[in-house]
Amino acid sequence: MTLATIVLKMSEGLGKTCAIFFLTLVFSLPLGLLVALLRMSRRKAVSVVTRGVISVLRGTPLMLQLLAVTYGPYYLFGLSVSRNKLIPVVIAFAINYAAYFAEIYRGGIESMPVGQYEAAQVLGYTKTQTFLRIILPQVIKRILPSITNEVVTLVKDTSMAFTVSYQEMFTIGKQIANSQTSFVPFLVAGLFYYVFNLLVDFVMGRAEKRMSYYR
């Protein structure tokens, strides 16, 4: 099999890799903010439970969570495994990354000076208005480098979808490598991930630069 053929076959799975990446971000970023707010809740029970969930999600392998979400319903309730494996894959990825994003959000929110809340209260802002209009924009600016770190990791983690036999780029590359007894597909996969990460780094770098309005 020629290099061009290998690249062509693996590019068929690139769309599925991109789908995992973008759908995970779409769901995990807002979910992470919600989890962070629950983690910071003044209600002790809510805070403790949320903290426990975050601990489990961050303390267990993403691979295990993929298997649990994909095959758990079958083993626990006898439900059939979803034919469209993109759904459980995205659910597992979104929940896992939401836990990491939640801690990043929490760190950013807790780093804001108390004086800003007091000033907003004096100006007549409600708690919701204060958070959405004053606190959140500054938090996003502060946590963007940490978010970038996680996004770069996500690009590489998409390869874990092979665990549940989802035909994304790495899975196809692995199949070709096994059938051809060649290491070339892995090199091609590495190049794909590297270029993908370069694009992500460029986009996130531009976003950071645009938000550096105090410099």
What does this molecule look like?
It is a single chain. The chain is mainly alpha-helical and about 220 residues long. It is about 80% helix and about 0% strand. It has one domain: Orthogonal Bundle (MetI-like fold), CATH 1.10.3720. The protein is built from nine helices and no strands. The longest helix has about 30 residues. The chain is flat and about 70 Å long. The model has no long low-confidence stretch (mean pLDDT about 90).
Poorly predicted regions: none
CATH topology: MetI-like fold
The oligomeric state is single chain
Give the ordered list of helices and strands.
HHHHHHHHH
Query: How many strand units?
Result: 0
Global outline: flat
Tally of separate domains? 1
Return the structural class.
mainly alpha
Q: How far apart are the termini?
A: 53 Å
Q: Helical stretch count?
A: 9
| CATH class descriptor | Mainly Alpha
- Gyration radius (Cα, Å) is 21 Å
- Rounded mean pLDDT score: 89
Helix proportion range: over 70%
CATH superfamily: MetI-like
What's the architecture, going by CATH?
A: Orthogonal Bundle
User: How much beta, percentage-wise?
Assistant: under 5%
